[in-house]
Amino acid sequence: MTRKSIHILIAATLIFGATTFSPTVQATQFWRFVTYLDGCGANTYIVGTATRDCSGHWTYSSQQSGHWMDVNDVSCTGAPVEYEYFYEYCGGTWVPVAAEDFGVCSC
Length: 107
What we know:
It contains one helix and six strands. The protein is α+β, with helices and mostly antiparallel strands.
């Protein structure tokens, strides 16, 4: 093989590898909004947020922790589908709580 052929082969291999094996972001079914809160009862306040768009990219604001976490999933397809989950941070883990118990400190 000639030197020019070897360079072309190497360049083609690099281009193929870069385009074939490059990391991609998984598209998601839901746009996710996460709100972190501190405090109890009427004194509950937002301390941070995280948002994942329908392409799977996350955007963060302020701290990513708190006593409470409110997670909202909204459909990326335009369908009227929305889910909401509530959590309280207890004993080093996020524990699901009912909507009516959100903000009522139990630990």
